[in-house]
Amino acid sequence: MPRAEVGSQKWLANKMKAKGLQKLKWYCQMCEKQCRDENGFKCHRLSEGHQRMMQVFCQNAGRFMDGFSKAFEHEFMKLMRTRYCKTKILANSVYQEVISDKEHVHMNATVWVTLSEFVLYLGRSGKCKVEDSPRGWMIEYIDQDQIRRDQDAEARRKREISLEQRHQKLIQKMIEDARKRGGFQEPEYTPLMKESDEKLRFETNLTKPVEAAPDKKSNVFMELCKKAKSTAATPTSERQTPSKEPPPKRKTAIETLMTLNGAKRQAVDKDVPKATTPAPDAVDAGASDKWLMTGIQVRVILQSHPLYKHKCRVVKIMGGGSRALIQDIEGSGNYQVDSNHVETVIPPVGSKVMVLRGAHRGRAGSLTKTRPDDLLASVRLDSRFYFPPVHLVSDGAVLDSVHYDDISRTD
Questions:
Q1: Do domains 298-343 and 346-411 have the same CATH topology?
Q2: Rounded Cα–Cα distance for residues 369 and 354 (Å)
Q3: What's this protein's family per the entry (predicted)?
């Protein structure tokens, strides 16, 4: 029977019948032809065109089936990636949407016989999360791009950490080389050296730095012309060399207040009479930093020292009184320390202490009272002393307001 002419009523009727999805079992994937009934599909299978295509298929069947399988998987995963990216859905629902297109690749032409086999394949390959439910197979898309981005970020972080570790090792190696050559000096912790009447001054500059204006396009010839006109108009007497000295800096509000307070204090000091100068011996004894004595207990405050925060006993004075040989109370070993790296030990009330500074340096006594908030204590002296006192005090006299740094526990 001849084919209907294009545009005729028969051709239009055939198009209307072919509209929509036909039965899948009457579709030929090799010829990409959809038949409307079983008789038409039989006639198609007996046609010469179909026979030629089947001969081509038989020559390399695996290549054709792999191609159809990849095309079907691509369409299925494209739909999962675009419409069902972060949702869990029935696999059959996605399959029905895939086959709604008349020109889709049929599953009969792929290596998967059923939809269950295809779903299990997606789960094994790690492309989807598969879960068996009473309603059927539930699948959820796995975003491989996000996983790849996370892996790249983790690899980048590890590279940065390795670079930083290599940098730290290089710095440590340079420090070791400098220590071997003798050019490396360990940091020493020293107290703040400040006199009682010394003032701490803080400078605060409230003026904002002038930001450089962005360069603007200018005409060089116009600038030269203006400069020549200004030079010609200015008299010779007025053409003086500009001063190289910077303009006086404007004082801030805090500096102005500090200047006024200093002037007021100077005026008050002029009106108040000067105090009587104390005895030179007492001043020298109180201002001396050589406070270490044999037999007292001290606590190490240097963090890098092996006996950090341990109580030790002074065994020997060295370096003119600035250094000492100390021994742990438990007798673990002897160490040399600087006077700046140890502090005095304040025992409980009633314990024996030694006066370390002042006119009564070397006198022993017992601790009678402590004031931790003010770091002061009271000591009752006895007849025991190592050095002749400057001012003889009878036994049993009490020294009030003695600083914690001026006394220490003794055996």
A1: yes
A2: 15
A3: Belongs to the KIN17 family.
Confidence of residue 238 (pLDDT cuts 50, 70, 90): very low
Mean pLDDT of the chain: 78
Task: Give the DSSP H/E element, type plus range, for residue 340.
Answer: none
Higher pLDDT, 149 or 206: 149
* Contact residues for 221 (Cβ-Cβ < 8 A; gap 6+): none
What backbone torsions phi and psi does residue 72 show, to the nearest 5 degrees?
-65, -45
Q: 266 in helix, strand or coil?
A: helix
- Enter the tokens of residue 318: 């060295």
CATH class of the domain defined by 346-411: mainly beta
User: Long-range contacts made by residues 128-133, C-beta under 8 angstroms, separation at least 24?
Assistant: 128/80, 129/88, 131/88
Say how far apart CA 68 and CA 45 lie, in whole Å. 20
Smallest CA-to-CA distance from 404 within 382, 373, 363, 362 is with 373
Q: Cα angle at 325 between 323 and 326, to 5 degrees?
A: 120
Residues 6+ apart with CB under 8 A from 35: 22, 26, 27, 28, 41, 44
DSSP code string of 372-401: TTTTEEEEEEEEEESS--SS---TT-EEEE
Question: HSE of 341 in the Cβ direction (CA atoms, 13 Å)?
Answer: 22
Was domain 298-343 assigned CATH 2.30.30?
yes
pTM of the model as a whole: 0.36
Across the beta sheet with 342-344, the strand order is 334-338, 323-328, 311-318, 297-300, 342-344
